[in-house]
Request: fold
Amino acid sequence: MKKKIAIIGAGLAGLTLAQRLHQHCDVTVFEKSRGVGGRMTTRHADPFSFDHGAQFFTVRNKRFGQFLASHVASGLIREWKGKAITLDPERKVTDRLWFEPHYTACPGMNSLCKQMAQGIEVILNCEVAPLNQNSASGRELFDTDGRNLGTFDLVISTAPPLQTCRLFESFLAPDSPLRHSTMLASYTMMFGLHKKWNKPWIAAKINNSPLEWLSVNSSKPGRNHDVTSIVVHANNSWAQQHVEDDPASVEKFLRDQLKLVLDLDLDAPDYFSLHRWRYALLDKAHDDKTRDMPFHDRDLQLASVGDWGSKSRIEDVWLEANRLADQILG
Reply:
């Protein structure tokens, strides 16, 4: 009989694991959101679309490049080309060099995860409750409404560290590396304009500001180029300090800060939304605590991996998920 494996989270890490394991095991993926993607998510507000999590990815590892090759050939993955700049409230605008190709999934960043989910049993809108003791036949899972989700031989969490610790709390040792990974928050502003983008640049790194990054999402391949969709990310350090602030005050402050660096009228956009990411980026100050990721305890029948255990780059997340799959299949 095939080993039964539950994977919590349908982002890139969870779906990478599911793809590797489902040919050898009976795999079920549980996702509390209404769609797959995790940080590789796309928000649609017709005619606008916003990759309000991960903006792009690069390819530096041969194995990751081989994985992407068929998706590049099909057009699902395409290079995002254009001019990048640096914005700074204290200095004039300068060009910013991109030394390597930058890729996006089309028509949204979540398109890659949607493709990877095909043929995988993914249960959406399902939040898994903290785990109980094993039964004689394995580990029973329940959702937060008390419904039995089945009994599994191995449970893998790809949720952020705090959420994973809540799920595994009864079984983790005090010095478990899972307890030492810290994530920083972020805020994302999304602006939609019913007109084409007419600037000569497509992205900007923002320095000396509570803001950090601006993307003209509508300039990416496969998007609607007849409108302008802009994504602006806040600085993670600033966002962490203000993660519990009133959203209205956060919005006003960040929009005021944007005016200081960007000569563009965004006072009355045709669409606007603010999104808070409570767990956005690995805190590098704690990076040395997670060198032995992924977490895999065969005795407890528990495992965990995700962007919190690597460098938060899409490529690194994929590599770490494959590393865990190698351990499980090995």
